[in-house]
Amino acid sequence: MIWTIIGILLLIWIVGFLLDVAGGLIHILLVVALIVFIYKMIRK
């Protein structure tokens, strides 16, 4: 499940770089996803 979310956010992030649409929001979402991923890895 977490890998699906990370994959989708990464794809949106790349599209944001290419089209420069809502770049700031996409970067914030990517950072949040990374923090959640690291948190889940530490908890295991």
First-last Cα distance: 15 Å
Total number of helical segments?
A: 2
The average pLDDT value, as a whole number, equals 77
Secondary-structure-derived class: mainly alpha
Shape field: elongated
Write down the secondary-structure element order.
HH
In percent, how much strand structure appears in the residues?
Answer: under 5%
Output the radius of gyration.
11 Å
Helix content: over 70%
Largest sheet: none
Count of strand segments = 0
Describe the structure.
Helix 1 runs antiparallel to helix 2. The protein is mainly α and 44 residues long. The longest helix is centred in the C-terminal third of the chain and has 21 residues, at 23-43. It has helices at 2-19, 23-43. It is 89% helix and 0% strand. It starts with a helix and ends with a helix. The protein is elongated. Keywords: Membrane, Transmembrane, Transmembrane helix. It comes from Gracilibacillus xinjiangensis. This is Lmo0937 family membrane protein. The chain crosses the membrane at residues 6-39.
Quick overview of this protein structure:
The protein is built from two helices and no strands.
Looking at this protein, list some descriptive labels.
mainly alpha, about 90% helix, elongated, single chain, about 45 residues, transmembrane helix
